[in-house]
Predict the structure.
Amino acid sequence: MEQPHPHLRKTLPRMNKTAHVDPTAFIDHNRKVIIKPWVCICAGVKIHGHYHIHNLEYQTRVYKMNLGLRAVWGANELFIGHHTWICEGAVILPQVDYIAPYTIIGANTVVTKNIKEPCRVVVGNPGRIVRKHDYDKVVR
């Protein structure tokens, strides 16, 4: 049986055994990531958990706009729904906290927003939903 990614052993106790995470994928330790069954995270995928804001003036502006810690540090956790495929080189930014089931995220896509509807194909920089796929036709 294939062993999970070495970083996932400590940080992702809720990862399903049927999920596949490539060893070259990067998952930030500052964030809880819930990976459901039959998820495929390919080579070079980066899942970021926080911003690298070192400018105190910018942090002060963020707080004055009432965006709070989420704008600075990102979401508390990321939920990746079952049967989701995240292709090579995709980047998921800290403000994303939900990826719906049956989602396909294209290669080198930068996901900047939540994907709330299932069965979507997301591509581009920034990631845009380009179409809905019919999961029943794909499986059969």
About this structure: The radius of gyration is 16 Å. The longest helix spans residues 56-64. The chain is about 15% helix and 25% strand. The helical segments are 8-11, 56-64, 68-73, 135-139.
